[in-house]
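User: structure tokens for this one?
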Amino acid sequence: MATDRSNLEVVDFSSFSSAALGTLEYDDDTQDWLLTFGHVVAHYEYLRTHADRGLRDPVRLDDIIEVINSTGSKYMSSFKIQDNISVGDCIAQIRRFVKATHKEKSYALFLIAGCSWYLSKSYWLTAESDSRHQKQLKHVACSHLRELTASCPNIAIQEKVLWTKLNQKLRKPHDISTYDIRELLQELCRPLKVLLFSPDPRDAGSTRPGAERRKLMEARCKAAFRDKVNVEDIPSCRVEDIAHELDKHRPDIVQFLGHGDEAGLYFEDGDGRAKLVQIEAFAALLGQYKKTIKLVILNTCYSSRAQCIADEVGCLIGMEGKIRNKDAMAFTASFYGALGDGLTVKESFDRANTSAKLDGTVRFQAHLLEKGQASTTAGAPTRPPPYNDYRGLDSLIT
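Assistant:
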């Protein structure tokens, strides 16, 4: 019997991306009604699948009318149901209604809402139904994303990344509500927050953090989903600034631009001089924000030894041995360019290592360390996460 990979409790800290919804934005004020439609469709599908499996009497017209009445009739004035219509015909009518009377963006959000409900229901029914039924519900969810891609050509979504995110968020069995779906869409629309710590002590050789920051912003501006990556910089960062800025910004990514060695990282004291922060202490502080921090990048010497940070927050990119300023800048620019194009952290890491070395003068060895795992060196074979199976969404349902 094939293993259902979507049920595997494996946390892949390098699977997140800046653009699960791509160019699609969710407007809570104007799009809230779509979730009601998604909920209606999901109820129809629930009634129909249970009737097909013989778990209750055949679906009656009264069941359908009850669902529609429970959602209100504000947006249903032109929607009619005949006595002899089937549940499948009802679903088709609602989809045609939304597609014909609303804009492409509305229809796309409608499809994602339905996909979310079907996925949630597939996990909710796991304990009381066979795997075949669960798989059928996931195929219905997949069909929504396929239709989105086919029917909304002006909306670019990262289909497989979105599928992975939805599975991760909806894995816990519960009866999802329209409020839950709205919260999920809002979260998926939220840009990644990048927090840069850029100390430049006056008694240490300059690492030119300003130049590296400029390279990062130039790469971000050229990216396809540049609005999905927000960057906050803390120049001349002092030790006492670290916790305050983490509290203030609650970032997804933390990057250190500055000096480091085997002993730790060098921030500034009150007089602008170098002050050492040991890696273990820095890791312990970051661990207090692990609910939001998904990645730490230490673009500094000897930082690949900081496995303790990966164990605290889940994922770390570090450098082996010494690294020159030009190498650090090349890696940073390429990595954030890829992340802004919608690639995942793992894919952006691989691209940065490859493209930064194209001119033959860049020399560095970067490592991707994950929680409880050995480091991944650029170019080394790794176990591909499920979302990297490019044979299509069907390959994710086994």
